[in-house]
Amino acid sequence: MTGSSATLIRGRHVLTAADPAVVVDGAVRVVGDRIEEVGSFDELSARYPDDQVFGGPNDLVTPGFINTHGHFSEALITGIAKDRTLWEWVAALIGPVAPHLDDEIAYVGTLLGGIQMLQSGVTLANDMFVCDPRPDGPTTPGVVRALDEIGMRGIVSFGAGDIRGAKIEDIMAEHEALASAAEASRLSKFRVGIAALGAQSDELYAESLRYAEGQGVHIHLQEIREEVTQVRLRHGVTPIEHCARTGLFESPTIAAHCVWIDRQDRRILADYRVGVAHNPVSNMILASGVAPVPELLEEGVAVGIGVDGAASNDRQDMIEAMKVASLLQRVHRLQATSLSGRDVFEMATIGGAKALGVDEQLGSLESGKLADIVSFDGDSLALANVHDPFGSVAFVAGSSEVNRVWIGGEIVLDGHDPVRVDPLEVAQRSRTLSKSLLEKAGVG
Ligand SMILES: [Zn+2]
């Protein structure tokens, strides 16, 4: 009945992000692309002696992490313009680079960023590719091709804006090209990207609204104080209120950042079930501010964690982002109880899945869900002594302890190396592309 494809993924601690939260000396049984059962390793291995066993008695096993916000469009421009705030950084770097991003850069950049995410346990990346439409064909399908090649799930969007002069018909064509690529993919799904309210004319925003119906939305909202002022001057309300009034939130929406939000904004997010992607590292690098994460959680908003793009973070490391999410709240509030290791672990798993509306299938280790699973090396020095497994994932482990990753039951990272792509070749290919991109853009 079970066949030879069944596997047992074993660990000293299996953290489920469900109930029970921890199974000690446990295992996850995977059949095909699904989790069949989570339970005691001794019991499961006695019942299914023919299953192939992965992992050892000291390992930590978790659900795959869900990176709720990022930009593969920034993968080749890491480490530049690090002393600027958001709008200065956009003017100095993102704007000049955007016209020169093409399908090949999208493909290689996604391989480069995607592999790093995978090495930190990410199994689903919610991406917004920010570029200008090109006359020689669409750019964003390269993202889907690369994710398929790595074996990683994606929720892909094109971060549309027309303030730099792009034509609305060309923008809609780019959305359509990405939507078709995602439709043809086993692992990617499409959402409508809106770079920010301030990046779109009223005409483009109206088109975005129309196109978003029945599809999801990925948007930046209230990342910096200036953005709130700008939209208040233009529309008389906050960006969040404007989205609610115009009907954008009728479509499932994930909003990145939500740093400069008040009580009424929080209530709107909760009422419309808008998910929030919290990006602590980029918020700190760009000096944007501290998102009120505990208040959002208290209001019942689903909050996930994002690594954000490689030009504003710059490390594509979900475990680092989890740790920083906790530390940022603590130092900001001078309160050591603010966001525990378990809080940030849940944000990185089931919280992110809820924020993206995929929690029926992903985000926890439960029978019937897709088998997206991470195994941490229990024989590593960092994890030699685990006293609080949530704290060990959030504060002790780094991406170097991520040993194996399964996506849909398939091993895509083994011994910290991606199985389906050669990382050295990707790094080599990215160097040539990055150099010519910066030359064309006139930055560097
Ligand atoms: Zn962003």
Instruction: Give the biggest beta sheet.
Output: 9 strands, mixed
Could you say how many structural domains there are in total?
Answer: 2
End-to-end span in angstroms?
Answer: 59 Å
CATH class label of the largest domain = Alpha Beta
Portion in strands: 15-25%
Shape: globular
Query: Helical segment tally?
Result: 15
Protein structure class: alpha/beta
Give the low-confidence spans.
none
CATH architecture of the largest domain: Alpha-Beta Barrel
By CATH, the superfamily of the largest domain comes out as: Metal-dependent hydrolases
**What ligands are attached or bound here?**
zinc ion
Mean pLDDT: 97
Helix content: 25-40%
Look up the CATH topology of the largest domain: TIM Barrel
Structural Rg? 21 Å
Topology, number of strands = 17
Describe this structure in words.
The chain is α/β, with parallel strands linked by helices and 444 residues long. The protein has 2 domains: 7-63 and 363-418, Urease, subunit C, domain 1 (Roll); 65-355, TIM Barrel (Alpha-Beta Barrel). The protein contains 15 helices and 17 strands. The protein has helices at 41-47, 86-97, 103-119, 141-150, 168-183, 202-212, 225-235, 239-246, 263-271, 280-285, 293-299, 318-333, 341-355, 389-396, 423-441, and strands at residues 7-15, 22-31, 34-40, 52-54, 60-63, 65-70, 122-129, 153-158, 188-194, 216-221, 253-257, 275-278, 303-305, 373-376, 402-407, 410-414, 417-418. Strands 1, 2, 3, 4, 5, 14, 15, 16 and 17 form a 9-stranded mixed β-sheet that branches. Strands 6-7-8-9-10-11-12-13 form an 8-stranded parallel β-sheet. Strand 7, helix 4 (141-150) and strand 8 form a beta-alpha-beta unit. Helix 3 (103-119) runs parallel beside helix 4 (141-150) and helix 12 crosses helix 13. The mean pLDDT is 97. Zinc ion binds next to loops.
